[in-house]
């Protein structure tokens, strides 16, 4: 091959300038001969600054020191270690920053010599995208692990493609038996035709599907009930891709509703009896005394049924606001209390504190001793907290191993003292589950109501951030948040 003519050289310069990739031409000793506009943008050098310089100026150590040896070895032996094929390497810009890139070096031979052409693609943005995707994936895994709800997804044919771990914990089912199945074929007791019509209507309107209760029978014959809801999702071209949603275990609530329905039926029956007796009493005056006695009995029965119904309704209200495992307020009840106390503190300019609590390495307890032992540990922590707080304080379970305490009219020092006292008490616990004795520690985040807290959720968020500061500080400690900054983590 002969050296390029003037005309071919002009064409080559045009190709170099128009290329979206960085292109560099060097002689057989690695000295830069051409450096196109994309290369200038990638490395931050002007072409005039690098032409005549060694290619190693674009490399960080130790590659810079090794580069000359690679080319010399290739010239002497013809063994390719750098020439030919794409390689993932590291480049260095003029300002000293190091970045990942794809690099391809090819040899061009011509009469009287040879040159090397390097093609370079900056991979910085792709690396950042992979990191962001990994963070997003881990965040989703954490949310599905700590949430009390479970999550599901179907494809466009209605077949189940995803069920979160919480679903399998509740149903004790095997993923292989459910994934790829239609919901009714997977064991859900639903009207398949009605479900298809409901989904079709929601897809047409592109809005959420109304939540409804479905049931499923476990392998041991126990029936569980879920309230599920969801919304359609679509491909980037707008075509229907499937459905995504969440489900919540309402088995205990459904059972109480069935009991209430049975009481209502008995109440209706007694009401009918009483009506019949009253009508008979009006028609048959001769048996007035006997009928009055019967009516009194029926009336007493009716009052007893009414009282039973009232008690059941109270139990239902308690279930709706109480965590069934620990007896603490559930997330909805706690957040409602937080909103009330926040409004009261703002109105009367009173102090307000929140203590966020999380059991350290709770997953390790479940994995080592089983979920039953984990439940006992949660109950022990809840009982300890309940023993230490005042009657005016609010204690709730927010989900998984996370709890919180709302302290009305409480300043920083008493709030920190309570958190430290709870930390010591939890560390001293010895929980017995079957033949095992379990010890545990907890981390605490304390936040005080600050002028910048526009709503109760801001105060709860700062307490949660302080909790994570305690976690990152080594766990088994108390961290204090002040305004927008975590001030301290006390071991």
Notes on the structure:
- There is one protein chain.
- The chain is an alpha+beta fold and 491 residues long.
- It folds into 4 domains: 6-122, Beta-Lactamase (2-Layer Sandwich); 147-249, Beta-Lactamase (2-Layer Sandwich), CATH 3.30.450.20; 253-321; 331-490, Alpha-Beta Plaits.
- The chain is built from 15 helices and 19 strands.
- The strands form 4 sheets. Strands 7-6-11-10-9-8 form a 6-stranded antiparallel sheet. It has a 6-stranded mixed sheet with strand order 13-14-12-17-18-19, with helices on both faces.
- β18 (478-482) and β19 (485-490) form a beta hairpin.
Task: Sum this structure up briefly.
The protein is an alpha+beta fold and 491 residues long.
Low-confidence stretches: 484-491
* Number of beta strands: 19
SS-based structural class? Answer: alpha+beta
Question: Proportion of β residues?
Answer: 25-35%
Radius of gyration: 36 Å
Could you give the topology of this structure?
Layout: H1 6-18, E1 22-27, E2 32-35, H2 37-43, H3 47-50, H4 63-77, E3 86-92, E4 98-110, E5 113-122, H5 124-146, E6 150-155, E7 160-163, H6 165-171, H7 175-178, E8 188-189, H8 192-205, E9 209-217, E10 223-234, E11 240-249, H9 251-283, H10 288-321, H11 331-348, E12 352-359, H12 362-369, H13 371-388, E13 394-399, E14 402-408, H14 412-428, E15 431-433, E16 436-438, E17 442-448, H15 456-472, E18 478-482, E19 485-490
Parallel strand pairs: 17-18
Antiparallel strand pairs: 1-2, 1-5, 3-4, 4-5, 6-7, 6-11, 8-9, 9-10, 10-11, 12-14, 12-17, 13-14, 15-16, 18-19
Helix pairs in contact: 9-10, 12-13, 13-14
């Amino acid at each position: 091959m002969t050296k390029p003519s003037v005309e071919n050289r002009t064409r080559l310069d045009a190709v170099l300038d128009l290329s979206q990739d960085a292109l560099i031409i060097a002689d057989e000793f690695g000295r830069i001969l051409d450096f196109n506009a994309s290369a200038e943008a990638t490395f931050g050098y002007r072409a005039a600054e690098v032409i005549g310089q060694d290619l190693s100026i674009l490399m960080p150590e130790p590659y810079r020191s090794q580069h000359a040896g690679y080319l010399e070895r290739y010239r002497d032996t013809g063994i390719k270690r750098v020439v030919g094929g794409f390689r993932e390497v590291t480049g260095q810009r003029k300002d000293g920053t190091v970045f990942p890139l794809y690099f391809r070096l090819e040899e061009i031979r011509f009469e009287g010599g040879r040159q090397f052409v390097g093609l370079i693609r900056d991979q910085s943005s792709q690396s950042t995208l992979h990191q962001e995707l990994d963070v997003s994936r881990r965040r989703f895994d954490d949310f599905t692990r700590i949430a009390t709800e479970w999550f599901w997804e179907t494809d466009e044919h209605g077949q189940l493609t995803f069920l979160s771990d919480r679903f399998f914990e509740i149903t004790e089912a095997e993923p292989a038996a459910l994934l790829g199945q239609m919901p009714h074929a997977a064991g859900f007791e639903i009207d398949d035709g009605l479900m298809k019509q409901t989904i079709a209507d929601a897809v047409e309107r592109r809005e959420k599907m109304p939540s409804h209760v479905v049931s499923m029978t476990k392998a041991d014959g126990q029936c569980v009930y879920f309230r599920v809801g969801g919304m359609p999702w679509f491909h980037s071209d707008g075509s229907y891709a499937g459905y995504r949603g969440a489900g919540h275990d309402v088995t205990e609530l459904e059972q109480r509703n069935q009991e209430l329905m049975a009481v209502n039926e008995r109440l209706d029956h007694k009401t009918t009896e009483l009506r019949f007796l009253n009508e008979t009493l009006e028609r048959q005056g001769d048996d007035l005394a006997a009928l009055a006695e019967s009516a009194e009995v029926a009336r007493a029965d009716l009052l007893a049924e009414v009282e039973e119904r009232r008690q059941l309704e109270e139990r239902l209200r308690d279930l709706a606001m109480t965590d069934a495992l620990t007896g603490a307020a559930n997330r909805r009840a706690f957040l409602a209390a937080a909103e009330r106390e926040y409004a009261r503190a703002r109105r009367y300019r009173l102090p307000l504190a929140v203590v966020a609590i999380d059991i350290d390495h709770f997953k390790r307890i479940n994995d080592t001793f089983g979920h039953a032992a984990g439940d006992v540990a949660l109950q022990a922590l809840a009982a300890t907290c309940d023993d230490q707080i005042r009657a005016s304080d609010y204690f709730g379970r927010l989900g998984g191993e996370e709890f919180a305490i709302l302290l009305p009219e409480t300043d920083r020092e008493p709030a920190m003292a309570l958190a430290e006292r709870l930390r010591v008490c939890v560390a001293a616990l010895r929980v017995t589950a079957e033949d095992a004795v379990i010890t545990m520690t907890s981390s605490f985040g304390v936040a005080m109501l600050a002028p910048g807290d526009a709503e109760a959720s801001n105060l709860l968020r700062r307490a949660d951030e302080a909790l994570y500061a305690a976690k990152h500080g080594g766990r088994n400690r108390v961290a204090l948040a002040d305004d927008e900054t975590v001030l301290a983590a006390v071991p």
